């Protein structure tokens, strides 16, 4: 069984992945930014530190067989995204190379793009480039929006549906998503950890259906037995409003995924079946499992 250095263990995907790694009898060393966050991490060793302060956790990478890199920033200034996602990953790669890590697994996004006008997409693309140009044996798993217990995307739609008098649809509502159940992502990650055939591959995966944002909202309303009026908000106005509120310290139910204008789909609806040999959970089943 492998010795794994895991970043981002306290995040949404990390909270689902860590117990699965432990159950599969892997020995896990987690990076957490604060001791308060680290309290939720069970059956693993914890190293407290920031991705950008490698002196605090470098020793944890030494002696590990594998790195699973989930730590990232989704919101914030372009500088923060660049520092955390691109620079943070580059520092981790340098240490992983020095430590002779056998496998480096990076969970990326289908939105990764070489265009600097999309700072998050650009920062993850830079991270991917650094990994591919390194001496490491890597696997990059590019995912569509991931949903499940604790995810900010579906949770945001559910909260507005439950508590707001009208349900906002950002933009035309026609952007399509191949929503992916976090349990399926964990299954894919475990296969990558355990099998050699994913070596030096970049794989793009999504769920089994491509649904428009408005179809997703309609399904949520149906499952919750709610009848609410929907209003379309122009994307720039909604983004401006959310940014202003967040700057004033007001938390909104909106995650960056709600503002996407490009489709968020893999090349094929059967990518998981083709690469990992199982049929991923349909959106309605994930939704019913949650509510
Ligand atoms: N969720 C999705 O829909 C989705 C879709 C495609 C790809 N991905 C990718 O999957 C990965 C995991 O996503 P997620 O949804 O689990 O993200 P998340 O919930 O936002 O968690 C991010 C994690 O990164 C940690 N982190 C952030 N900045 C850090 C820093 N400077 N130093 C150390 N740790 C830091 C956070 O620590 P704190 O707990 O201290 O904040 C947290 O553990 C990311 O690479 C993301 O791009 C996610």
Description of the structure:
With 291 residues, the protein is of the alpha/beta class. It has two domains: 3-143, NAD(P)-binding Rossmann-like Domain (Rossmann fold, 3-Layer(aba) Sandwich), CATH 3.40.50.720; 153-174 and 209-290, UDP-galactose 4-epimerase, domain 1 (Alpha-Beta Complex), CATH 3.90.25. The chain contains eleven helices and 13 strands. The chain has helices at residues 12-23, 35-38, 58-61, 78-99, 119-132, 152-163, 182-194, 213-223, 235-247, 271-276, 283-290; strands spanning 3-7, 27-32, 45-48, 66-69, 103-109, 138-143, 146-147, 166-170, 176-177, 180-181, 201-205, 211-212, 229-233. It has a seven-stranded parallel beta sheet, sandwiched between helices. Strands 7-10 form a two-stranded parallel ribbon. A two-stranded parallel ribbon has the order 8-13. The protein binds NADP nicotinamide-adenine-dinucleotide phosphate (NAP). NADP nicotinamide-adenine-dinucleotide phosphate is lined by residues 7-8, 10-14, 31, 33, 37, 50-52, 70-74, 84, 88, 107, 109, 124, 143, 145-146.
